Amino acid sequence: MAIEKIKVPDIGDYDKVDVIEVMVSVGDEINEEDPIISLETDKATMEVPAPKGGKVVAVSVKEGDKVSEGDILIDLEVGGEAESEPESEPESEPKSEPKAESKSGASAQEDIVIPDIGDYDKVDVIEVMVSVGDEINEEDPLVSLETDKATMEVPSPKAGKIISVSIKDGDKVGKGDVILKLETQSGGSVESVESGDSSEPKVEKAPEKTPEKSETKPASSPSVSSGSELAHASPSIRRFARELGTDVANIPGSGPKGRITQEDVQKYVKSKMQAIESGSGGVVAGGAGGAGLNLLADPVVDFSQFGEVEEEKLSRINKISAANLHRNWVKIPHITLFDDADITDMDTFRKANKQVALDQGVKLTPLAFIVKAVAKALSDVSRVNSSLSADGESLVIKKYINIGVAVDTPAGLMVPVIKDADKKGVYQIAKDIIDFATRAREGKLTGKDMKGGTFTISSLGGLGTTAFTPIVNMPEVAILGVSKSANKPVYIDGEFVPRLMLPLSLSLDHRVIDGALGAKFLSSIVANLTDLKRLIL
Ligand code: CAO
After folding, report:
1. CA nearest ligand 1 atom 44, residue
2. CA of 362 to the centre of ligand 1 (A)
3. Which of 129, 168, 484, 514 is the most exposed place for a label (fewest CB within 10 A)?
4. Domains of the chain listed by start with CATH number
């Protein structure tokens, strides 16, 4: 056994690149090529694969770090003898493959490599268009590469059957790197073949990224699309779209950074055909029909003509949560139920224990009790603790109860998750909330802290509000909004008495939970908060 330090490989010209995800933890057994971390530059997202398999014994980076070539990522315990230079060479040279005998008319295997791509050293692979087993013709596109100035396709210099593919989306490649191994029928040279004699990669100008400020999108274009010249699509996808008689400008991309894939083109054309068949032809692309999501394009307004303005860049978290909230708002048919919980007794109990808790370093706010009450309600009404399966065919009911708590931070909203909330006491939950809120505000939460939630609570109780309509945090199916408690007159036994009432707002995914079940669940939370003794049942 030997310990090897796995470092950041050559990542081109970039220095101090954002770590957006760490995919391994101490104790993980990983295989060669398993992704270790995901990095993001302003132009691309790339994964760093493990150069060999082994057991992770230390992880030196976390999400939010910035790393450069040579920085240590993990310590890996690998089998066999320690190497004299215990540093991995992550971007290893293409291994020299046993070369096939050259027999005229017999099959031979050839490495197809990246041809001369001009002045570029390492460029991004944005799309690998072939897979093992594919039969390809000469000139068929193999990969699409992207520099900051151009997108280019590398065509195959020969016809044959693909035996193996050595690169994947997100890799960086340079002249001579092996793309794939091809079994050809003609035999001939078994040398590594630069992709095409005539094979200058086909270059297409990279999309201009900044639209004209004054440009106004036609009302007919869906807001998710940008103009043809702005669409993020490789030359072959543009050609494919043209062949089907459509324009990439109309097609929303589902690939990384909104890239348009072949499947996107097919889906778009299919939806147009269906619209035509159903008599609403053309509506999908916009028009006055009002069907579907034929939204008007966002208005482009020069606000400075009306007064002084200041532009503030959105943080990465702002942008990620905006995209998630938008999807959740559009895709989930929401209903929101409201109720007030009488927390008079709970608050008396909380206040009586506040100092005791403080002596143990715990600030006891109503939220810890609310988390506990919700955990109990989730175990009693388990359908709420579920997610729709990706194919929409079934409901996945989770046997664990992990409650996310929305935390307001200077960088935006974050949702750390209190794991196994049903098994924890109120003190422990309060501790978790303080720990998460502190780390969230210091930007120290890890990806793991925010994963695995089964339900979310968003509390504005410390700030105010009497009610609000929170947005369900997909793939969860419900979220509880908590507003500020207030003393209100409640009619009990023939007279009005002052009681401390806590307003609750429960938003539901109506595809999964109907109003009756939602009301049952909300009543259960209210009952748990009103009578804390229920929590020990
Ligand atoms: N009613 C009345 N008072 C409340 C209350 C409620 N529902 N909830 C909290 N309070 C009180 C607390 O007791 C505390 O008072 P004291 O300091 O006198 O004890 C005060 O309000 C502040 O509480 P807090 O906010 O520090 O603590 P918390 O446990 O209630 O919440 C956290 C922690 C991290 C959830 C909260 O600080 C936060 O970030 N909330 C924002 C959530 C958010 O933005 N949601 C998104 C809404 S939709 O976009």
Report:
1. 408
2. 14
3. 514
4. 1-83+195-221 (2.40.50.100), 107-185 (2.40.50.100), 332-535 (3.30.559.10)
